[in-house]
Amino acid sequence: MLSLQNLRSLSLDSWDERELLPPLGKLPFLEELSVSYMEKVKTVGDEFLGITGTQTSSSSSSSSSVLFPKLKQLTFHGMWEWKQWEGVGGRTENGGDEITIMPCLVSLRIEYCRQLMNLPLFLQKTPVRNVEIRKCRRSIRMPVWPENCEVEIFQDEEDPVIPDVSESDETEIESDEEITTTSCGWKALCG
Could you tell me the residue ranges of all domains in the chain? Predict the structure, then answer.
């Protein structure tokens, strides 16, 4: 059986049917990770970090965990449906001091992830020195970066326009009517 324990570099490309990222956070020597064109992934969370629900509770264990202990470079590219990057325990922040995430991270690149709305707060506790965000939504929520971190945002995308129907005299929406605007991908069911 093939062991991935000594893996130092990994590129995951075009896993079209995959809805979750594999649990890679416990690979002890992984230094470079690139994830591209996993088109059905909508949320990145605990499964990617490689932790289970029992590890997210501070009362479950007194021991500490280090996830992605050697990771230096992390790249996401062309994740068209990716909307949320959650922190520990389904929250967008670090859920406790007993878990350390990416303590060696130097470079983070996120490209062509146009629906991504947030980056997790645990990133502000990393030593990251270079963050590059390209062709992502303009209003992406980011953590406060360390002082010595260079953040570059290129060609940010306009956020989807949500129509304001509250001021229109001509528009009346029934409680179960569906609104769709295909040009920006915004869809809502009023209820």
Answer: 1-159, 163-191
Residue whose token pair is 């390209």? 134
Cα distances (Å, whole numbers) of residue 22 to 15, 16, 25, 171: 11, 13, 9, 45
- CA–CA distance, 153 with 41 (Å, rounded to integer): 23
What is the per-residue pLDDT across 13-38, written as a single tens digit (0 to 9) for each?
Answer: 998 889 999 999 999 999 999 999 99
pLDDT of 74-129, one tens digit each?
999 999 999 999 987 544 444 444 789 999 999 999 999 999 999 998 998 899 99
| CB of 109 closer than 8 Å to CB of 75 | yes
pTM of the model: 0.74
Phi, psi for residue 48 in degrees, rounded to 5:
-70, -40
- The model's pLDDT over 38-79, given as tens digits with 9 standing for 90+, comes to 989 999 999 999 886 654 444 444 456 899 999 999 999 999
**Residue 137, C-beta contacts closer than 8 angstroms, at least 6 positions apart:** 114, 115, 116, 117, 156, 157, 158, 159, 160
